[in-house]
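Hi R.,

As promised, here are both runs. First protein below:
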Amino acid sequence: MREDDELQGVTLLGNQHTKYPTDYSPEVLETFVNKHPDNEYVVTFNCPEFTSLCPKTGQPDFARIVIQYIPRERMVESKSLKLYLFSFRNHGDFHEDCVNIIMKDLVRLMDPRYLEVTGIFTPRGGISIYPFANYADDDHQALAEARKLKAFERALAD
């Protein structure tokens, strides 16, 4: 069981008065302490209901966002991540921009060992776009390169 001091800064979980942001809101992201920083393990978030807006037409874009990371000292709290991703609903940016913004915000928030974000956007105009962005500290550069190569292979298999 976690102690109260380990949950400082986690304010959204269990809050019955949740306010859903209507504009891009990285400040909603919260973290908690990783109790196992000596272990290298992977955390995966599958977010199948991501939406954003085309920056030119304002039309909605829909995607599944997959976030995977190897934590260091801090971990992202899932309800805050849900609200953060929801905040893209009225955000007008290209698919590639959204994926890179998410990656950079999470790296800045947590300082993970490794983090990747994949966007699996539904087709628009007969074209599917699957942007992939990753970050690695010095010890995980080989993993970053291998995962980028895998993203190329995955795209070619579809």
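And here is the second one, sequence first, then its structure tokens:
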Amino acid sequence: MEKTLADVIGDYNFFLEDLFSKISEIELNVEKYELDHICYRVQSINEYKSKKEELSHFGELLIESMVNGRLISTFKLIEPIAFKNRKIFLIELPSPKSMHSYANGLEHVEFVTKEPLQKIVDRYPQYSFEVFGIHKKINADITLKLGEYCIRFHNQNLEDVIKLEKNMSNRR
């Protein structure tokens, strides 16, 4: 029997329902933001290689690049994940960082906004956003942890960032 995407990354509908329930509980309005991609974490480099191979059956590997000392692969799905009124085309698969331990499974989603990231932080002072990535030159971000999950906000979608990265590497 052929594997489904859910066989490979788990019950993404449950993950998204659970995550959006947590977002709703804290009354953070994300309706106007594009849900750019979801992230699947692995515990070991062997699991990274295996998951990368499995995901290649469901989409195109857009890039595998070194980010903060570890490889991250991004896949564009042939058939997007449909969740409510959203279509999610990208899955991010980071290899584990040394000295960090992650559970295997879906961990976070990333939203794209056109507004300055600091405005989101200022609008919700009651939340402890991680802002260490807010001043990055490429793909600045803020993060909010919600239990075992987290959400991130960016000003550029991941596919555009990948195109930018590829253009920059072609110039070298």
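A quick note on the second one: The domain at 5-171 is CATH 3.10.180.10 (2,3-Dihydroxybiphenyl 1,2-Dioxygenase; domain 1). Let me know what you think.

Best,
J.
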